[in-house]
Amino acid sequence: MVMSLVISLPLILVIVTAGVDGQQYWAVNYSPSYVCALKQSTVKLSCALNYPHDHELTRAFWTKTAVTDGDPPNLCLDPEKRGRVQCDSEDKDTYRITLTNVTKADKHIYYCRFTTDRGRWTGIPGAQLDVTDLQVETQQSVKEGDSVTLTCKSSCSLPQQTTFIWFRKRQRLTRGIITENQLQLQSVSRQDSGNYQCAVSGYQHLKSPPVYLQVRWDDGLQDWGVNYSHSYVCALKGSTVKLSCTLKYPSGCKIETVFWTKPAVTDGELPSLCLVPKKRGRVQCVSEYKDTYRITLTHVTEADKHIYCCRFTTNTTAGKWTGVPGAQLDVTDLQVETQQSVKERDSVTLTCKRQLLSASTNNIHLVQKHTEINYRNHHKESASAAVSQSSRFRKLSVCCFRISASEVSTCLSSSTM
């Protein structure tokens, strides 16, 4: 008699899922993801594409529009950028965009968009390009024997390995101690007076505007000066900005002229911003009260991003003064950042980002008090919402600042899924 032993084992079924629509196979990696570039320099951005292995890539291009459906404009086919923008393939699935002679208008987030024979993808959050020029900040006047620190400032964070170069009267300086972006001059003499400029190694031709340092034997400098209502203002594009300056001068002097100007130099006669024809109707200069003068700029743009200085002259021969380092105006717009795709019932965080200078919080003055508001499909959105079935349609996400009860400034919108 043959006996058989049958052992029943539980059946274990292992299911490996690839997520909703296999989205982990779709991605774009940027190198670098953030660039702070000098105005008029050359910038290169690369993107590496990921997609399912059984798909065939049919098209890849760079764009500034963050959409997940439709066909956004191809930057390399933009007639306005012809000759200044070049796109090429570095190797398989890696694509590069090169922008030459960059300007503040190129300051944006750049996205790689690609399609396969069975799908398409936009690489969000993209690669961000910031464009800056250089500015020298220092005391306006010092006495012989003093120590002086000059700082080369940029509106975004240049790479840590950046080497700064200093010039006086357009000649490269051989004296002084250079530490990162600062030049320290010990025990200055009147021979150290002159226009100072800074530049970055490799871009010596892209110097900062000159700033005049005056070294005097005169001991009465404490009688001269300019105080600004705000040394730094971050304003939303399209808003109105008001800057005030209060003058200080010896009691025996009489004010002859006062005006606002942009070049921070103390020799020669400088242009008055209120007399510039291009700014007529958008810039207003008034005297608030004795020795206090205000400039008002309406509908500000990135072209208004600058350092503004008060310049005044008196009835004495040497009685001229420019209030250095001045009041700095930064102009920003807003961007929405979020995940490109999520699963139903997930929680989603949308961030309303604004681009500010790398300044300490104490120096930042946002125009009046502000409140961030989010919109979806042009309707005010609640603070948080779960993703529902209807969220599968494309949405237009917008963030804005409420400047006052009667005024709202909105940002550039981003389309999200």
UniProtKB/TrEMBL annotation:
Keyword Metal-binding assigned to the entry: answer is: no
Family annotation (InterPro entries): Ig-like_dom, Ig_sub, Ig_sub2, Ig_V-set, Immunoglobulin_dom
Which PROSITE patterns is this protein grouped with? IG_LIKE
Report the residue ranges that make up the Ig-like domain in this protein: 125-201, 209-311
Q: Name one Pfam family in it.
A: ig
Q: What keywords tag this UniProt record?
A: Signal
Where does the record locate the signal sequence feature? Answer: 1-22
* Family matches, as PANTHER family: B-CELL RECEPTOR CD22-RELATED (PTHR46013:SF4), VASCULAR CELL ADHESION MOLECULE 1 (PTHR46013)
Instruction: Please give the name of this protein.
Output: B-cell receptor CD22-like
